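[job 0412] stage=complex_fold ligand=QAP status=START
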Amino acid sequence: MALLPILEFPDPRLRKVAVNVGQITDDTRQLAKDMLETMYNAPGIGLAASQVNVHQRLVVIDVSDDGDDPRVLINPTWEPSTEEIQSYQEGCLSVPEFYDDVARYSKIQLSALDENGEIIFEQAEGLFAVCIQHELDHLNGKLFVDYLSRLKRERIRKKLEKKHRDDEKDALYEAKAKAQAATQA
Ligand code: QAP
Ligand code: CO
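[job 0412] stage=complex_fold status=DONE, emitting structure tokens
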């Protein structure tokens, strides 16, 4: 088991288009397990492989209240089952601390494989449908902030870039303090 580092907007690696998973192997299942652990730890309800810098078409989702319904979707696709649109306030582990409304189809038909290669073909609605559409966007290099106005997106980008600079400074300071403590020991 391992927690995986999550890429954050505006990292250009989040823009890569993921390729299909060929054979589902033990490595695929290990990646899914690590992604679920990373998602639950956050905590989050969905995570795409793209977000942990693995550019393969695999996502994990758990929209249950108790966090006891892990779903692994491999090579997933969807199509709308209705013209009805619903708006939901979305967030993203790659856009920490920012949330905004996004309009998406309220009912979709999901096709995918699970971690054992079994075919998944089911109707999704509500939060599950929102989450599938959000996570599959990641596999195509798309983020929820792309649906917002340019002004909002730029504001988020600037704030996150500042946070990343500050995190970098903190890390550097800590490393220096540690090195100094070592020379005094
Ligand atoms: C995508 O997002 C999603 O900003 C999954 O500080 C979100 O799990 C689909 C999270 C909403 C549908 C509706 C975000 C955790 C988790 C943050 C997540 C944060 C900590 C986001
Ligand atoms: Co996301």
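The first strand starts at residue 46 and ends at 48.
[job 0412] exit 0
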